[in-house]
UniProtKB/TrEMBL annotation:
SUPFAM superfamilies noted in UniProt: CheY-like (SSF52172), Nucleotide cyclase (SSF55073)
One cellular-component annotation, GO: plasma membrane
Presence of the UniProt keyword Phosphoprotein in the record: yes
Any one Pfam family match given in the protein's UniProt record, by short name: Response_reg
GO molecular function, one term: diguanylate cyclase activity
Modified-residue entries (4-aspartylphosphate), positions: D55
Protein name from the UniProt record: Nucleotide cyclase
Organism whose genome encodes this protein: Lucifera butyrica
Cited CDD domains: GGDEF, REC_PA4781-like
InterPro entries assigned: CheY-like_superfamily, Diguanylate_Cyclase, GGDEF_dom, Nucleotide_cyclase, Rev_trsase/Diguanyl_cyclase, Sig_transdc_resp-reg_receiver
Keywords: Phosphoprotein
Keyword Phosphoprotein: yes
Length: 299
């Protein structure tokens, strides 16, 4: 996650201008270059860009249009944009800042001032990225949190709806966890949650799948492009992986180790259905897994 160097995209229709900025910054940062607005948008969406230095006057698509388009796209909205232009009227500068640029540098510029501004904005970008990452992780287990899950589930749902593809959800709940806490204390309980969370994360091997802590001692997994039969197989693998951790649980009546019960639900989404409906189905299946004896998967 900690990539060594941050990345700057330099956009200017003049190759000489691009070259000057590149020479100034290439020793400290990864540099991408674009000589048109279209090219800039394509790089901004396909590469991991931390900052954009953007010329204003360019043929076809000017810098203002590029910036507006970047700010409209959720994928590129958070990339800070600094305009660099010879246009120095108050209206030009104000316009640039109004449409979302973080700064506006007037040509001819002083190299050390530009470097310092770039450094400061990149430093802020680093903290913003870190905050964003932390806001999506569960503090105890280090896996995705509920907020992350809600966003990802919504995205997966819409993707499956578009592609008429199946989507599965697993709800997992630790068996007799209250007794575990009562027996070992909450600190050991927390430790157990951490181990279970990490093990579940490691069990989901396919790209589109992921696990989150749903709350308390409950976890949830999203399995994209997965019909019911396969969801059941994945769930059973996860269930066995947890028991194989061999975390002693003397108060459990289903195993000598900590175990989970799993409710699985699958659907091919159609208009009018909701993600909440699928979750409810998984929750009902989980209830069945509990009442049918725990340490099992119900579909
Ligand atoms: P069941 O097999 O029916 O799921 O029984 P259970 O005891 O696991 O279910 P219940 O919902 O009654 O208890 C969940 C327990 O999980 C209660 C609570 O103390 C514990 N718990 C929830 N969040 C945390 C946490 O963050 N840390 C610890 N240590 N315990 C937690
Ligand atoms: Mg120009
Ligand atoms: Mg519970
Ligand atoms: Mg439980």
């Amino acid at each position: 996650m900690e990539s060594a160097r941050q990345t700057i995209l330099i956009v200017d229709d003049s190759r000489l201008n691009v070259q000057i900025l590149r020479d100034m910054l290439a020793d400290q940062y990864e540099i991408f270059c674009a000589t048109s607005g279209e090219q800039a948008l394509s790089i901004a969406t396909s590469e991991n860009v931390d900052l954009i230095l953007l010329d204003v006057i360019m043929p076809e698509m000017d810098g203002y249009e590029v910036c507006t388009s970047l700010k409209k796209n959720p994928q590129t909205r958070n990339i800070p944009v600094i305009f660099i232009s010879a246009l120095s009227d108050t209206e030009d500068i104000t316009k640039g800042l109004d449409i979302g640029a973080i700064d506006y540098i007037i040509r001819p510029f002083n190299q050390s001032i530009v470097k310092a501004r770039v450094r400061n904005h990149l430093e802020l970008k680093k903290y913003r990225d870190l905050l964003e990452k932390l806001s999506l992780l569960d503090g105890l287990t280090g896996i995705a949190n509920r907020r992350y899950f809600d966003e990802a589930f919504d995205k997966e749902w819409r993707r499956a709806l578009r592609n008429r593809d199946s989507l599965s959800v697993l709800m997992l709940d630790i068996d007799y966890f209250k007794k575990y806490n009562d027996y070992y204390g909450h600190l050991r309980g927390d430790d157990c949650l951490r181990q279970v969370g990490q093990a579940l994360k490691n069990s989901t091997i396919r790209g589109g799948d992921f696990v989150a802590r749903y709350g308390g001692e409950e976890f949830v997994a999203i399995l994209s492009s997965t019909p019911a039969e396969n969801a059941f197989i994945v769930a059973e693998k996860m269930r066995k992986d947890i028991e194989s951790l061999q975390i002693s649980h003397p108060m459990s009546t289903v195993s000598e180790y900590v175990t989970v019960s799993i409710g699985a639900a699958a659907i091919i989404p159609e208009q009018g259905m909701t993600p909440a409906g699928l979750l409810e189905k998984a929750d009902k299946a989980l209830y069945r897994a509990k009442s049918e004896g725990r340490n099992r998967t119900a579909l």
